[in-house]
Design goal:
Blueprint lengths: L1 E5 L4 H12 L3 E6 L8 H4 L4 E4 L7 H7 L3 E4 L6 H6 L1 H19 L5 E7 L22 H20 L2 E7 L1 E3 L10 H10 L5 E3 L5 E2 L1 E3 H13 L5 E5 L5 E2 H11 L7 E3 L14 H6 L8 H9 L2
Parallel strand pairs: 1-2, 1-4, 2-3, 4-5, 5-6, 6-11, 7-10, 8-13
Antiparallel strand pairs: 9-12
Helix pairs in contact: 1-8, 5-6, 7-9
Amino acid sequence: MKVLITGGAGFIGSNIASYLKQEGYDVIVFDNFERSIKNVKNVLKGIAIEKLDLRGDLRKIIKHARKSVIVHAAAYINAKESIKKPLEYLENNVASTVNLLKATSKIAEKIIYLSSAAVYGEPKHLPINEEHELNPINPYGASKLSAEYWIKAYSNLYGINYVILRLFNVYGEGQKGEYAGVISKFIEKARKRKPLIIYGDGLQTRDFVYVGDVAKAVKLAIKTKNFNEIYNIGFGKSTTINQLAEIIMEAFSFYKKPIYMPERKGDIKHSQADISKAIKLLDYKPEVSLKEGIKKIINI
């Protein structure tokens, strides 16, 4: 089966592309390389790569889209940045999705959209199931939710099947640079034996899911007959940022008291995924614990 991956040169997209290639899929990556990972050609060795900006002419993707599955991973992902640049997030996360749908919804077999737990905002209850109120608190979350609605609309209009995966805090190898998550930033500090920086009191919680488990969830979404559904993809366990700091310092066998900074505007306090729907309907089973995943990153 042919799988087209938008944003396939990014952290999550490249991991998905490599995994699906190993699993025997015919994979083509599309990316504008604006925020791609380092050494992307080595990471995606043996995978066809096309330079493409989803905000422009999509003839390159249309050529391959008939009866294919599209994994739509392309997005800006930084909540803090989205507050400063809301129009860029609207353009890159929403308008580009609409452009992709216009080009492919009549010819592609299925679209798998990588959404985000940011659509929920500050949770009213934990764990968060897919029926939880949708109340994003930053432009990033709003852009991901808007794209979900556009996908549903095009499914209703043209019959394209979809699976929406609401990803929680994804981490793993290759997540570096300005747009990296808290785990990568903590590891970078710990490697240099510098104190970790924590925003707020460190009691905020996150549900960390290893990128390899996300890639497996995408494969399950490709294969599933339970499409036109939304699924939470996390590990199903919450961890405080203070606990995360301790795990990482322990992995490096060093301790320095973290530096606590004022909490950041636009950050939620708590998060934990209810993954029971994905377990039941996708046969999703996250395998890599937080400690195991951190060891994988450190040992590469």
